[in-house]
Automatic annotation (TrEMBL):
GO terms for molecular function: pyrroloquinoline-quinone synthase activity. GO terms for biological process: pyrroloquinoline quinone biosynthetic process. The gene is pqqC. Its EC number is 1.3.3.11. The keyword GTP-binding does not apply. The lineage of its organism: Bacteria, Pseudomonadati, Pseudomonadota, Alphaproteobacteria, Rhodobacterales. This is Pyrroloquinoline-quinone synthase. Keywords: Oxidoreductase, PQQ biosynthesis. Pathway: Cofactor biosynthesis; pyrroloquinoline quinone biosynthesis. HAMAP family: PQQ_syn_PqqC. It is an enzyme of class 1 (oxidoreductase).
Amino acid sequence: MTQTREDFEARLRRIGAERYHDLHPFHDMLHGGGCTPDQVRAWVINRYYYQHSIPMKDAAFMSRVDDPELRRKWRSRIEDHDGTDTNEGGIRRWLRLAEAVGLDPDYVASTQGVLPATKFAVDAYVRFVREKTLLEAVAASLTELFAPKIHANRIEGLLKHYDFADDSSLSYFRTRLKEAPKDVAFGLGWVLDHADTAEKQDAAANALIFKTDVLWSQLDALHSAYVAPGRIPPGGWQPGTGLLDARAA
């Protein structure tokens, strides 16, 4: 049975309440000041792979869209990450965070040291958006519904517990507090408008679940490699490498 617009929105929001990665123990460590400097660096390196893939995901989506109005609405997402003449963009802001935690930004941008599981998860998301229906692709982006809360908690926690945290190093998260509501307002409305059958609603909900799995699996990989039991897989970043002081030497 097709759900009402209100019931379907509530269903999507429940997915976030139950499955969003703010519930992962790694985030409890990070926001609570429990991460070592190397654990923070490992998170920055691996999360960068996700950040730098988002514009490619959005470009893949736009390449499949016939409607110019939808392309216009979606185009700002690429600009938010890649930047414009007047906006440095999220990728550059993330590299400034990398530098603040002592990493060589060129090393981070090279994506060397990214965990295999991170690559598999993020690449699967890009492929999902490229191959699935437009409805599923847009629905997968709706983790943005839950992002402002985690960004606000992250800013508060990092400022409280870590010396590297300041307005410059955390500018990525502060900017996303302004950008994400715009994106999610459009994306949520579009999904609610187009998921007009029970089958489409199920597909959209499953797409959002898939995206929460993508985010969760990245943190599982980090926790396994750098927290407990601390088994870094071949190719994963090794503490002591890729640092700014190593470049200076």
